[in-house]
Design goal:
single chain; alpha+beta; two-stranded antiparallel ribbon; 3 helices; about 15% helix; binds zinc ion
Length: about 180
């Protein structure tokens, strides 16, 4: 039996699509983080990334649209809870044989390679410093109790510090 190379599933021969503007093709497949070469701490090698894309041939290229479901792992930056979550990324990209759009990916030899795009999205959208929920109360800075699940008798909350400003900034960057 031939050895399966999952990455090849994201290498699409687009000759038919290019010949017939208006035609469509669906790409629905799950690949492991290892298949995609995602090897930092946010990914477990056997996590499945679900790719659900529609390719539509236009006069000036192929529009690739759909979603990519990305599992990721992390630790809440406020309460230190271990997290295993998913982020669903929207895809809307253009692939062109002759690149005229500065944001387009190139089609080389009628082959449309979706892997670099999928990989890039996973790397961009899996958060580095997540929150377990947007209003996570975090840990008491004095006694360390998890303020999501308990209360303490420590003095009233400290004044906002420069760290809180940084925390909010991080949160905006992560889109949380
Ligand atoms: Zn939390
Ligand atoms: Zn406390």
């Amino acid at each position: 039996m031939a050895r399966t190379v999952p990455q090849r599933a994201l290498l699409v021969n687009a000759a038919d699509l290019l010949r017939r503007p208006g035609s469509e093709r669906l790409i629905q497949i799950s690949l492991t983080a290892a298949d995609l070469g995602l090897d930092d701490e946010r990914f477990a090698s056997d996590d499945l990334i679900a790719v659900d894309l529609q390719l539509e041939s236009m006069s000036d290229g192929i529009v690739v649209a759909g979603t990519i479901d990305i599992p990721w792992h992390g630790v809440c930056r406020r309460c230190l809870r271990t997290l295993a979550e998913h982020t669903v990324s929207e895809v809307d990209e253009l692939y062109q044989t002759v690149v005229t759009d500065p944001d387009a990916f190139q089609i080389v030899g009628d082959q449309l390679d979706l892997l670099p795009m999928v990989r890039e999205l996973a790397l961009l959208d899996a958060p580095w410093s997540p929150l377990c929920r947007p209003d996570c109360a975090g840990l008491c800075p004095d006694c360390g109790i998890d303020l999501n699940t308990g209360t303490c008798d420590c003095e009233e909350p400290r004044q906002p510090s420069p760290w809180d400003v940084l925390d909010d900034l991080k949160s905006q960057l992560d889109g949380n």
